[in-house]
Structure formats: C-alpha cells, structure tokens
Specification:
Layout (H helix, E strand, L loop, with lengths): L1 H23 L7 H19 L6 H6 L6 H6 L5 H19 L3 H21 L23 H26 L6 H26 L10 H5 L1 H12 L4 H5 L2 H13 L13 H24 L7 H27 L7 H26 L3 H18 L6 H18 L9 H22 L1 E6 L5 E3 L2 E12 L3 E10 L2 E3 L2 E5 L4 E5 L1 E5 L2 E9 L5 E8 L3 H42 L1
Antiparallel strand pairs: 1-10, 2-3, 3-4, 4-5, 4-6, 6-7, 8-9, 9-10
Length: about 575
C-alpha cells in the first residue's frame, strides 16, 4: 500500500506539472496526459471496489465483500471523494475531445489545476486505513438502486460538458460545434435529472417538487442556463457563460455541507472554502467576459429562463447568507418551497406557454382548443376545483396545441416532440401534485379503498440473503400485485423501508410497510393520479432532444463537407 500511495503522489505531481506548463508556456500542449492520469486513477479505484480492497478508506466506507457487483461499482461515485474523481475525469475527457486552441487549453488547465488540487489535498479517494480490516461498511442502502447506479455518471458528463461550453463562450464564441454540443449537454443533464428523479420516485416515494430537496433544486441551476442557451439564437453565448459557473456554485454548496440532504456529500465547511475560491474565480472570469461582450438582442423566452434562474439562485442563497452572516435560520423545507419556489414554477409555466405563442402560428385555433379542452378536462377529471391545477392545465394544453400543427416535423425538428412532452409533463405533474391521496392503516383494517382502487393484504414472506434479510408484504390492488419490503442489512446494521408501486391505467399506487412501536404492521398507501403522464412526457422530451442534437450535427458536418469541397475546387483551379 505504500507503493500505491507513492504512485498516486507521483501521478498527481505529473498532473500538476503538466497543467502548470500549459498555463505558463507560450504554446500549451493538449490535455492527453492529464486525461490519461485520471483514467488510470479511476480504473485503479474501480479495481479496488470490485475486489473489495478495504485497506482503502474510501472502499471500506462505501462497500462490502457481500455487496452486489453493480453496487460495488456504483459505490465509486456514491461518495464525496470518488464522485469528485469521476467529475474531474469527465472534465479532462471533454477537454481532450473538444479543446484545440491555445487560449482554451490554457483556461482549462488553470481550472483543472484548481479542482485537481482540491481533489488531491481535500478529497483524495486513495487514503489508506491505519489499521487492517476484513469487511467494509457497505454502500448506503438508499443508494443501492439501479437508477442511482447510472444517474450520477450521466449527470456528471453533462455538467462537465458545461466546462467546455463555458470556455468556448469565453474565447471561441464562433466555434461551429457550439450549438450541436449545447444540445448534447442539454440531453445529458436532462437524462441525468430524469434518472435521478426516477430513483427518488421509487426509493423515497418522490412526488413533490424534487422531494422538497434543496440539493436537487441546486442541480437545476446549470440545467436552466442550458435551456436558455438552447432557446436563444444570437444571445446563446450570454447563456453559456453562466452554465459552468452554476455547476461550480452547486458543487460548492453541496460539497461543503452548506446544503444538507440525503444527496449531500461533504460536511466540512473549511474544505468547501477551496471549492468556493475556485467558484469565485470562475464567476470573476465570467463577469469580465460578460461585460466585454457585445450586447445582442435577447428573446423574451431566454430572458424568462435567465430571470427564473436568477430568482431561484437568490431564493436558495438568501437563507444561507442569513444563516452564516446574521445567524437567522430559515429552514428550506416543503413550506419554503410552497411559499417561494412554487410561484417561480408558475413563472416557468408562463414562459413555457408563451414559447410556442411567440414562435408558432395559428394562435387563435390553439387558444380555442386550449380553452375547450381545459374546460372538459377540469369537469371530467378534477375531483374538485383547484386553481393551480387548472392554470397548469391551461399552460399544458396551450403548449400541446400550439405545437401539434407541426407534428409532420416530429422526426426532423426536436422542438415538436420536446414541447408536446413538456405539455404532457405539466398535465401529469400538476394533477398528481394537487390531487394525491394518502392514507395510513393497520393490516387488520384491510381491505381498504383509496380512490377507485381496493387494496387487500395477501401474505408476509421472509427472504434471506448473506447481505440482507427482507420482510416482503404482498398486497393486491384491483387484482394486481404490489410488494413493499422492510430490509435488514446485516453488513451496515441498518433498516430500510423499500416502497413499491403498481401502475393502473395512468395512476400509480405506492405502498410503504413498516412496524409501529407496538410491533404491529402498518402500511402507508399513496394514490398518485395520472402521474404516468409525467413519465410519458419526459420520454417525449428526451426524443425531442435526441432529434434536435442529430439535426444540428447533420448541419455541422454538411457545412464542413461543403467547406472542404469548395476548398478542393479552389485548389484545383489554382
């Protein structure tokens, strides 16, 4: 293990020297060597996880020899140090792939040196335990979920691509690839957030605004900046200038422990100061470039997204400033979100609804169909009048009907699928949010009715494995099976209540079973009406982003082919 420590020290020393040379030399080299070093480091750490090398503190804390292989691998990024190494590797990967100009490589090397120094001195995943151990602590049971195993790498790939887009916006605003890779970034971040929300939905019973989690809300910062860039034309550079600074801001808040939740990694405010300095330097560079930029006309939609982003950042940062600056505690909880974030969500819905109105035609037809459909929807579907649900239905249907005239372009214009998908998402999310039903009953009180569905208890079974003991309660919902579990993890000595859910038509029934203090089983049942529309809408959004990305790459390569053919003709004439 002494050899390992020495090897890591040497690798990071080479990394630092290479980045320093790129910063100060007149002709900086590419970033192949830093990327290779990161690849070696992360491959080594992955090997330690797979082989359960518990002499490594990071492996001992987040894995166990009985942990399934997929969660041994996921354990690499299921913690602060490993996830920072993965994020840093993604930064170097995109830099190697896309950065070619000297100034771009110099800026990238400077930021990579700052983040790499933090990784080595404050978040080193290769620290050796002082004493020998046989088994580990195991990965947090809440993170042992297939969606969580793939959600962070995809999200980190998208957020790290913001790094290259930010550098291009600073020094290469006319790069022909910028529009295509903005779509790639948007797709990766969106897919990462969808997979993360799908994990929270199944693991935590998610059903509100990001499970009322400030850390999840912070992940929306760069996403909104990228959305603004996607919808912008001449002003896309302005939007891209803020995408990576938003990533760094979220990184600092989460990794320092300033924002605490199930998703938080770091809890050392002092180590967060290092990341805070990196963030300040990134923001300073952004503002210098921003004030030197030539002001261009910005669309209302772009201004709307950027304004909502500014308000969202203010709402998250203001309680933090009041707490650490003036000792005033404001709890960022469900009530805080209802009072302050929900109005912001309404503003976003307004801009989403205005988007097709400003760009597309047939406004009168769209408006007529929207009013008629909303009236029928509210009369037939809503169990009682709800102003927020009605308003959301108006925006959702307006978005759908304003776009549906262009359905013939479904496979060559990504906005068609994406806008229809967003409209369907709005319908499903708002309806479920406002008309969710929840009851808690003892097993003896079953069968019970929730909504139009009857839930009955069938049996209790025990499933024993070396890692976990599962108490599985089998219920039926209108003849369909649903089986929540109470899991006893032998390795980490923890108990996890694993929810289960079943889809009936477009509704979902969630069940969570737990034992009360008097050792009687209880079950919490939740009806989420029409929530399937939300997931169908997200699928359409992903399809739209894919179509848009392919379209932009086609345009780029066609342009490159045209340039090369024209150059060949000129050469032939000469």
């Amino acid at each position: 293990m002494l050899k390992l420590t020495l090897l890591i020290d040497v690798l990071f020393a080479i990394l630092g020297i290479t980045l320093l040379k790129n910063i100060f030399l007149k002709n900086p080299k590419n970033l192949n060597l830093p990327f290779s070093i990161c690849t070696i480091a992360i491959a080594t750490l992955l090997f330690f996880y797979i082989t359960s090398a518990t002499a490594i503190a990071n492996v001992w804390l987040n894995s166990h020899k009985l942990t399934p292989l997929i969660y041994k691998i996921a354990g690499l990024w299921g913690n602060h140090e490993g996830s920072m190494l993965l994020f840093f590797t993604c930064l170097t990967a995109w830099s190697v792939l896309l950065l070619r100009k000297k100034d771009s490589i110099r800026i990238a090397s400077f930021i990579l040196l700052l983040i790499g120094s933090y990784l080595y001195f404050k978040a080193n995943p290769f620290v050796i335990l002082a004493i020998e151990t046989i088994t580990g602590q195991d990965l947090n049971p809440a993170l042992q979920n297939p969606y969580l195993a793939i959600h962070p790498p995809i999200l980190y790939m998208g957020q790290s691509l913001c790094f290259v887009l930010w550098i291009w916006a600073c020094v290469e605003p006319d790069n022909p690839k910028i529009q295509a890779y903005t779509r790639v970034c948007f797709g990766l971040i969106t897919l990462g957030l969808i997979l993360g929300s799908r994990w929270a939905y199944g693991e935590l019973g998610w059903g509100g605004f990001w499970f009322w989690d400030p850390v999840e809300t912070v992940s929306l910062f760069p996403w909104l900046a990228i959305i603004a860039a996607v919808h912008a034309k001449e002003s896309s550079r302005i939007c891209l200038l803020f995408c990576f600074p938003m990533v760094m801001l979220g990184l600092t808040l989460v990794r320092s422990g300033v924002l605490v939740s199930v998703h938080s990694f770091g809890f050392d405010l002092h180590s967060g100061i290092w990341l805070g300095i990196c963030t300040i330097l990134v923001w300073a560079t952004t503002f210098i470039v921003f004030f030197k930029c030539k002001m261009v006309k910005t669309s209302m939609i772009t201004l709307g997204f950027l304004s909502c982003l500014g308000v969202l950042v203010t709402l998250i940062l203001l309680p933090i400033l009041l707490k650490y600056g003036f000792g005033i505690n404001i709890l960022i909880d469900e009530l805080f979100f209802h009072q302050y974030i929900t109005p912001l969500a309404i503003c976003l819905l307004i801009f989403a609804g205005l988007s097709p109105y400003l760009k597309l035609r047939n406004h009168g037809w769209s408006l007529f169909c929207t009013i008629l459909t909303t009236s029928v929807w509210c009369w037939l579907m809503q169990p009682h009048f709800n102003m927020y649900a009605t308003f959301s239905a108006v925006v959702g249907f307006w978005l759908i009907f304003s776009t549906i005239n262009h359905i013939k372009h479904f496979f060559n214009k990504g906005f068609v699928s994406a806008h229809i998908g967003i409209g369907i998402c709005i319908l499903g999310a708002s309806f479920s949010e406002n008309f969710t039903q929840k009851i808690e009953v003892n097993l003896a009180e079953l069968p019970v009715k929730i909504g139009n569905y009857v839930v009955n208890f069938e049996s209790l079974k025990i499933d024993e494995t070396p890692q976990v003991s599962k108490e599985i309660l089998h219920f039926t919902v209108n003849s369909l099976n649903i089986a929540p579990q109470r899991q006893h993890f032998h390795t980490s000595k923890t108990i996890k209540h694993q929810p289960a859910w079943v889809r009936i038509n477009f509704d979902h029934i969630h069940a969570t079973a737990f034992a009360s203090q008097d050792n009687l089983w209880k079950v919490e049942l939740t009806l989420k009406p029409l929530i399937s529309l939300f997931w169908v809408g997200l699928l359409l959004v992903i399809i739209g982003i894919f179509v848009s990305t392919v379209t932009y790459f086609k345009k780029y390569y066609q342009l490159e082919l045209l340039k090369s053919s024209n150059f060949a003709k000129v050469q032939a004439v000469v």
